[in-house]
Amino acid sequence: MEKSALDRLLDYLAQHNLKDGDALPPERSLAEALGMSRRDLRAALASMEAAGRVWRGVGRGTYLGARPLKFSASLRSLRAGSSPADIAEMRLVLEPAFVELATLKASPDDLAELEKCARRNATAKDDDEWQQWDHRFHLLIAQATRNPAIIALMDVVNGMRMKPNAREKTADQDTRRHFAMQHQDVVKAMLERDGATAAARMRDHLLNVQWRIPSQRERGDDAVR
Asked: Where is the HTH gntR-type domain (predicted)?
């Protein structure tokens, strides 16, 4: 049986004794070394990134392991003291505008990755798997803007959401399914290059996120996403 692109990439890393903190070769060189297309390589790297096994820095390249704090965006100080409600409110202000811009600038490959990510959201079996694909979904939208400042800001927002006392939970399958459908609605509008509708669908989604947070706090549970 032919190995998947991800398995071939993992074999390459093991054969070259690459470890956390090491830089991967440039995408073109790595794809040639692995004998695969750059699209297949990007999909394998995306899977590793979603699992927190690689990180990418704008203008820096791709590295194994989790993103070191020294390479985090300077806005990381915003994380201190931010509650789930604070984060949800900030996202409601920012992300509809991000997705409207991304709709105009996204490449066909960007849209294909977003479709894939939305499908993975829909099949997530637990909160940890949901979080991986949800964070990637929102980061992919930022990356599709081709704006380094927006990408860095979204990276910070995702980091804020991962704080133990601020991490949002998708506690049940019905919640995950509902939000996955909203993600798919966003992607559908993006595929139609309808930025206004994509922004409206993102706003609906984030209002739904925001609406759930206070009620969850009243029960003394973690915030639901």
From this structure: 1-67
